[in-house]
């Protein structure tokens, strides 16, 4: 006889608690489990509810994953806002988040492989992605106060691309000898913004 841990029935009106529990359980699973092996059953089993309960809050697994990504983008923004505010501190905070939360970072930027055209991203994710990026744009703007909006956006994107590339490469090729993070950031800021180390 198999005994399963069932979640106690929630009181009426506590649907948001269950929704949050599903997002939390999924986030925890993704710290150690590959995204491609995640299923509705593994999430509901970890949460102690039936698959039906999940479908009361999310249309499908991709919608649940969007909610998880939204949480992680919020965490990244909080990490950047907690940094000193200068470009170097923000860049180092970005790389630290990616390194310390490897599973979360991978989920944030995961793209489903499809043969047909991918669906447009959820508006909420686009908004949260830009919100997480805003502290970096503001820091670049403080260094380049006379830059046009286009120049500011392009320079900020170049900085982010370089940070994201290093973060991804350190996971994909951990055996490859990358430059020290601090030295990498110093050189990057100097090349892009002309700031001395």
From TrEMBL:
Domain HTH tetR-type: 16-76
Domain of life: Bacteria
Record key words, sorted: DNA-binding, Transcription, Transcription regulation
DNA-binding region: 39-58
PROSITE patterns (UniProt xref): HTH_TETR_2 (PS50977)
Coiled-coil region list: none
Keyword match Transcription: yes
Molecular function per GO: DNA binding
Short name of one Pfam family: TetR_N
Designated name of the protein: TetR family transcriptional regulator
Origin species: Kribbella jejuensis
């Amino acid at each position: 006889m198999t005994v399963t841990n069932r979640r106690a029935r929630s009181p009426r009106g506590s649907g948001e608690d269950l929704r949050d529990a599903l997002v939390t359980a999924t986030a925890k699973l993704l710290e150690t489990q590959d995204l491609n092996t995640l299923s509705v059953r593994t999430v509901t089993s970890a949460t102690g509810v039936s698959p039906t309960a999940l479908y009361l809050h999310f249309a499908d697994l991709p919608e649940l994953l969007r909610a998880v990504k939204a949480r992680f983008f919020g965490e990244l923004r909080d990490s950047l806002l907690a940094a000193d505010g200068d470009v170097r501190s923000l860049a180092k905070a970005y790389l630290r988040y990616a390194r310390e939360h490897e599973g979360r970072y991978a989920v944030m930027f995961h793209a489903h492989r499809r043969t047909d055209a991918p669906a447009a991203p959820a508006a909420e994710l686009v908004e949260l992605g830009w919100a997480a990026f805003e502290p970096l744009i503001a820091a670049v703007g403080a260094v380049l106060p006379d830059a046009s909006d286009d120049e500011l956006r392009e320079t900020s994107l170049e900085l982010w691309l370089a940070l994201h590339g290093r973060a991804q490469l350190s996971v994909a090729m951990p055996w490859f000898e990358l430059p020290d993070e601090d030295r990498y950031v110093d050189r990057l800021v100097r090349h892009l913004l002309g700031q001395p180390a």
